[in-house]
Structure formats: structure tokens, C-alpha cells
Design brief:
43% of the residues lie in helices and 13% in strands. With 251 residues, the chain is an alpha/beta fold. The protein folds into two domains: 4-187, no CATH class; 189-251, no CATH class. Strand 6 and strand 7 (195-196) form a beta hairpin. Helix 3 packs across helix 4. The relative contact order is 0.11.
Length: 251
Amino acid sequence: MKKLQDVKTQYLQDMEKNQYYKNIDELEQAWGMAVKFYKKEYQPILLKSGNHKLNKNIIIWDIPEVVTCKGCCPSCYALKASRIYKNTRIMRACHYAILLQALNNKNKYNYLLKYMSCEIQKHVLIYKNPILRLHGAGDIFNNDYLQLILNIVNKNKNISIYTYTKQLDNNTIDNINETYKNFNIIKSMPCVNNQYYINYGGMDYLQDLKNKLEKDNQKCFICSYGIKEGVTCGVNCTACLHCSNVLFLKH
């Protein structure tokens, strides 16, 4: 187990990977909030409702983009919010600090697992068919974090949970999706014949990729958001809850 100061050093070094997380005062504030969280002096709402695209029964867990990803995707939509909104930067940085501290300390790990599960179950009391989306921003940055996610999934089997990732290989994703019935991982980089493809683009690209995947006996779905009017995620489109190959129109 690392000393807390060493974990903080790692946190500050990691945050340097994102050009919008350069303000040391913001990073110090976010770190301090995470420390207070584990001292039980700060009780934030970690899981929040999303944007107009998502139904109100969907809550989101965000962490810093780029910092937790293999690289910066072209036209990454999560970057815009970090560039514009100070509070968004601090919130995502705080979540990352909370994670790093939990992954380095068993007591903090158990506290975070219990805290997030309590938030999820409060959501269950409010909404019918509640859904948790992991990572409107960010990704699964290491195996320890993946295990934390799977523990959350196991403790909350009465809620549907989904996420997207470029970090995990396709076989690992398939195995996880088969094992955990209330958890679905969408492949941000689906693979056909050892060739990887990005899962968003123009309509011609999406249709061509869909054909490739289905020819390879992989189920595929093109998200109807931006294609059909009146589409709301979690209401009249639930592909992300059960399909690992979901393709998105770039918009």
C-alpha cells in the first residue's frame, strides 16, 4: 500500500495528460474533496442524471477523459465539457482522486463500494427500471478498477449497468457480458478478422461495418439517435443494455 502522498503524486502526474486539467488550484481542490469524502466530512452525489439524450432513469458516473483512456479520440465529446465548465473538471478530478485512494486502501475501497451501492439503491426507489451508465467521460483504466466495477455490478443486480471501453480486448468483453447478466460492455473498437474499427462515423461507414460484423456472426445494432426523431436512450432504444456492438452516427 502506497502512502497517501505518493497516491497524490500519481494523481497529479496522471492529470497532466489532459490539457484542460492544468490548474493546480482546481486539482488541489478536487483532491481535498476526495480526502474529506473518506473522512466522512463530505457526502457528494456521485451518480448524476445525464443530458437530454438520456431518460431520467439513467444516472452517470464520470471520471476524467484522456487521463483514463488509451488516447484521445478524434472529436471526443467529453472534452468539450471539461474545456468549458470548471465545476465539471473539478467533479471528474475528484472522482478520479476518490478512485485512486480506494484502489490503494481496503477500508476506503469498501467504503466507496458501499457508498455507491447506497446511491444506486436510492435511485431504485425513485425510478422504474433504473439504469447506471459508467463513464459518460473516461474509461476502465486498469484491472483493479475493473474489479471494483464488477463488485458494484454484483452488489446491485436489480439495476441495469452499461459502459463503453477501448481498454479491454474483445474476448474479455464477451466473457464479462456472458457472466454478468445485468452488465453490458459496448465495444468502442469492435474487431473483425483481427482488424479493429471505431464504432462511430457517417451512415455509409456504419452500414458497412454492420455488414462486416454480421458476416462474422456478431450481432450489431446502429443507434437510432440522430437518425430517427424522438429517440431517447433508455426508453425507445435500449440496445446499449444488451448488445456489445452498438454503432453511433457521428454528430
